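Appendix B, record 7
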Amino acid sequence: MLDRWVAPSSVVLCCEVPETARVRIPNMLDAYDQPVFRPVGCRDSRSHGVTLDLCADPLREGVDEFAVGSLPVTLVRLRPVRVDNAPNPVDLDESLAKRLLAYYATMT
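Structure tokens (predicted):
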């Protein structure tokens, strides 16, 4: 996630996902409004999506990522957090844009 999207006083939404929840691989519709997204190909045998490590140069895969369908709001907890200074600030600047283009160019 880009640092400019995280306010100093933020809230993290947390929930325990029940076994009956529909967990799936994130797709392009989940990320249509995101400037950074690492799609998983149809022929890929992964059981999860993949984030991008935006602090790496060159960019590389980050942690596993999942999408969940509708959940009862009673399962969602709000956790207030304070983010004074990001340890590795990441902005969508020209440098990151070039690294993203180089990374996406390696995908087939």
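Remarks on this record: The beta strands are 9-15, 23-24, 49-53, 60-65, 67-68, 76-82. Residues 39 and 97 are 17 Å apart (CA to CA).
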